[in-house]
Design a protein that fits this description.
The chain is mostly helical and about 280 residues long. The chain folds into three domains: about 80 residues, no CATH class; about 120 residues, no CATH class; about 50 residues, no CATH class. About 55% of the residues lie in helices and about 5% in strands. It is built from eight helices and three strands, in the order H-H-H-H-E-H-H-E-E-H-H. It has a three-stranded antiparallel β-sheet. A hairpin with a 3-residue loop joins strand 2 and strand 3.
Length: about 280
Amino acid sequence: MKGHRSKGDSASQSEESSRRRRRRGSVRARAGARAPEHGAAAGDYDQVTQTELARELIGVCLAALKSYGLDATSFVRLAEEAAAESVPATPFSARLLSDTEQLAKAINGWGEEPRYLDATGQPAVLPIAGSKPCFADLAGEFFPKRDIMDVVRLGCSTHVMERVGTDKVARISSAVLFPGNSVLTLANTVRTVRWLLGTADHNRRLRAGEALGFPDRSAHVEIPAGDFAKFVAMVRPQISGLLEMCDRWLLQRSQLPNGRSGKKRLAGIQVFVFRE
């Protein structure tokens, strides 16, 4: 006996077949967006590959910024604003890090210049302004055009000084430390990423045979988690020695007469130990 199929059964099977076709079409569309078919032009493959790598880079940045409290909505808004704006001559991160360097010099002066020391030879509690000596005099040497209260806020936010009452400040640290300070760490990260991307842009434009050695060389191997501290202890002195050697060379070159080879450009080396 032949089976009997109702119109309802036929319609249901037809809908299911349509859904399967749509799913297959959707999968093919996604696959086509992620990887060109075999035999596609090299330009098409490069474009799709660049798109995927850009997507990954954006994802890495978003994941990192989420750890600082930035949500996806804010990320999209900031990305749109950044795309619409021109790059400032002096980036915000550069200004903040420059202020930090000047603050470090001021803090050192606070602990070295006799007029800023107390009777025991320790950094004295200073009036913010007014009677001499005062913090305004000290800060003015390094921040000549800044409002003194801006410098006080910077010093307190970086945990090198604290307010004493309403009109005095005390030095509580001899150095501006990045570890433990999210704002300074993020500023340094932004600068590092800018330098890294600039280096990558230079390297991608090199022709075969132009590169000296291996410009993108790195050393990375999976090791037991407990060995990371040992690796840091082993390599930090080597990094310090390399940086000091490079610093001396760069300073020596920077002090040579101007006009020898055109416009000066910031150059340097940055080394860091990492683990994923």
